[in-house]
Write a structure and sequence with these properties.
The complex is a heterodimer.
Chain A: H1 3-24, H2 33-61, H3 67-72, H4 92-113, H5 119-147, H6 151-168, H7 176-183, H8 190-207, H9 230-244
Helix pairs in contact in A: 1-2, 1-7, 2-5, 4-5, 4-6, 4-8
Chain B: H1 6-13, E1 16-17, E2 20-24, H2 25-28, E3 31-36, E4 41-45, H3 54-67, E5 73-77, H4 90-99, E6 101-102, H5 107-114, E7 131-135, E8 143-148, E9 154-158
Parallel strand pairs in B: 4-5, 6-9
Antiparallel strand pairs in B: 1-2, 3-4, 7-8, 8-9
Classes of the chains: A mainly alpha, B alpha/beta.
C-alpha cells in the first residue's frame, strides 16, 4: 500500500467532506428558499466528490477498507482537512466568505489535478471542476452583492472576512504529503495556485468594496490532523450512525 | 455513438432516468459501453454529477431490466471522460422540452443566460424567450430555476456542463 498516496487522497476528500457537512447543516435553514437549495446542492456536489475520493482511498488502502470506513471510522487526528472548512455557520456572511475563499482555492487546484499523473485523481478532478465552477460563480456573486450591498451587509461581510482570513493562509502551506505529491507529479503546486487565488480574490473583494486584512499570521494544523474545537462536534454527528450501528448500510 | 446489439439497446431504452422519467438512459448519454461477455452483459455508465443520487437507482434498474429478460447484467461506473450535456441526444432534448424542462443551450449561450442575465432561454410552456433566472440552482444540481415573464410560469432549465 502506498501510504503517501492514501494520505493525499484523504486530504482532498476531507476538505470536500467537512465543507459538505457544514453546508448540509443548512438544509431547511437557508436565509431564503433559493439560497437554501443552492447551498445544499453545493453540499451534494462536494459529497459526491468525497464519495469518489473515499472509494479510491479504500482501494489504495486495501485490507477490508471500504468507502464508509474511510469516510466515517477514522479518529479526529486522522482527518486531514484544513481548519477553514470546519469553521461554523455563524451567519450567512461567514458561510459565503468561507465558501468563496475555498472555491477560489479549489478551482485552480482542480485545474492542476486534471493533469495529475494519477489517473483516478485526474478523472475525479476533471469531473468536479465543472461543478466547482458553479460553486465559485455562486459564492463570488454573493460576496459582491452583500459586500457592496447595504451598510449592514457590508459590515457583516467585512467582519466575516476579518475573522476567516486567519484560516485562509493554511490552504497554501505545503504539508509533507503535498510536497511528496507535487514531486511525484500526482499533486498540485500550491505556489502556482496561490498566485491564481490572489488575483481572483483581489478582484472580487475589490468589486465587493471589501478590504483584505493586512495581517499575515494564520491558524494551522488541520493538514496534520490537529483541528479546532469544532471538529469533535462535527465528527460526533457525522459518525453517529456508523459508530452506533457498526457496518450498517442503507 | 456506441454500437449496441439491438436487443441490448431495446432493454437500455426501457431504463429511464428516475429524476426525469421521460428520458431513457440512452437519451441522457450516460451509457458509455455495452458488451456481451461469456455469461453476462457488461454495461458501463458515467454519472452526470458526482453527487447524483440517481446513479445507484439507475444501476439497480439496469440490472433488473436485464433480469426480466433472463439476462445477467453487471454495471461498471467510469468518471472519465466526464459527462457533458452535449451527450444528451437531439431526441432527448425534444422530450425534455415537452416534459417542461428547458433543454441545455450551447456553452456560450448558456453563459450569457446564467451570467449576464440575457433573456434567451425559451419557456417550455409558451415558447417565449422573455424569461428570467430566479436561481442558479434548482430542484437538482443539474438544473437552474427560471421564470417566464409572459406566461408567468416557473420552469427548470438543464444547465450546461
Amino acid at each position: 500500500m502506498n501510504d503517501n498516496l492514501y494520505q493525499y487522497i484523504l486530504q482532498l476528500s476531507d476538505n470536500s467532506m467537512i465543507l459538505g457537512h457544514r453546508l448540509s447543516e443548512l438544509c431547511g435553514h437557508g436565509p431564503s428558499l433559493e439560497t437554501d437549495i443552492a447551498l445544499t446542492n453545493i453540499s451534494l456536489d462536494l459529497y459526491g466528490q468525497t464519495r469518489s475520493y473515499c472509494q479510491y482511498a479504500a482501494k489504495v488502502k486495501g485490507e477490508d477498507f471500504n468507502e464508509d470506513t474511510v469516510a466515517f471510522l477514522r479518529t479526529e487526528r486522522e482527518y486531514k482537512n484544513v481548519l477553514l472548512v470546519e469553521q461554523p455557520n455563524t451567519d450567512f456572511a461567514y458561510i459565503i466568505v468561507r465558501q468563496f475563499l475555498f472555491d477560489a482555492y479549489h478551482l485552480p487546484l482542480l485545474e492542476q489535478l486534471k493533469n495529475s499523473k494519477d489517473e483516478m485523481i485526474a478523472a475525479i478532478a476533471a469531473k468536479s471542476i465543472k461543478e466547482v465552477s458553479y460553486h465559485h460563480r455562486f459564492s463570488s456573486e454573493w460576496v459582491k452583492r452583500l459586500g457592496d450591498g447595504t451598510e449592514e451587509s457590508h459590515q457583516k461581510m467585512q467582519e466575516a472576512l476579518d475573522y476567516l482570513w486567519a484560516y485562509a493562509g493554511e490552504l497554501f502551506e505545503e504539508s509533507q504529503i503535498e510536497k511528496w505529491a507535487k514531486e511525484e507529479g500526482i499533486g498540485a503546486d500550491l505556489n502556482a495556485i496561490h498566485e491564481e487565488y490572489k488575483k481572483d480574490i483581489e478582484a472580487v473583494f475589490a468589486e465587493a468594496t471589501l478590504t483584505i486584512p493586512e495581517y499575515d499570521p494564520y491558524q494551522q494544523g488541520g493538514k496534520n490532523g490537529i483541528h479546532s474545537e469544532h471538529m469533535g462536534y462535527i465528527l460526533t454527528e457525522l459518525q453517529y450512525m456508523q459508530r452506533t450501528y457498526p457496518n450498517m448500510t442503507w | 455513438m456506441i454500437k449496441i446489439d439491438n436487443q441490448i439497446q431495446e432493454i437500455l431504452e426501457s431504463v429511464s432516468d428516475p429524476e426525469i422519467p421521460v428520458l431513457s438512459i440512452l437519451d441522457m448519454g450516460i451509457v458509455k459501453d455495452a458488451q456481451q461477455k461469456a455469461d453476462h452483459v457488461l454495461i458501463t455508465i458515467t454519472p452526470t454529477y458526482s453527487g447524483c443520487p440517481a446513479m445507484d437507482v439507475i444501476e439497480e434498474d439496469i440490472v433488473n431490466a436485464f433480469k426480466s429478460h433472463n439476462i445477467e447484467a453487471k454495471v461498471d461506473t467510469v468518471l472519465s471522460p466526464p459527462w457533458t450535456t452535449e451527450w444528451i441526444s437531439e431526441n432527448g432534448k425534444q422530450k425534455l422540452e415537452k416534459y417542461g424542462i428547458a433543454p441545455p443551450m450551447n456553452e456560450t449561450m448558456d453563459k450569457k443566460a446564467l451570467l449576464d442575465g440575457e433573456r434567451i432561454i425559451k419557456c417550455p410552456q409558451c415558447g417565449s424567450t422573455n424569461t428570467e433566472m430566479v436561481s442558479q440552482f434548482g430542484s437538482t444540481p443539474c438544473k437552474a430555476l427560471f421564470k417566464c415573464q409572459d406566461c408567468l410560469e416557473p420552469f427548470d432549465y438543464l444547465k450546461c456542463i
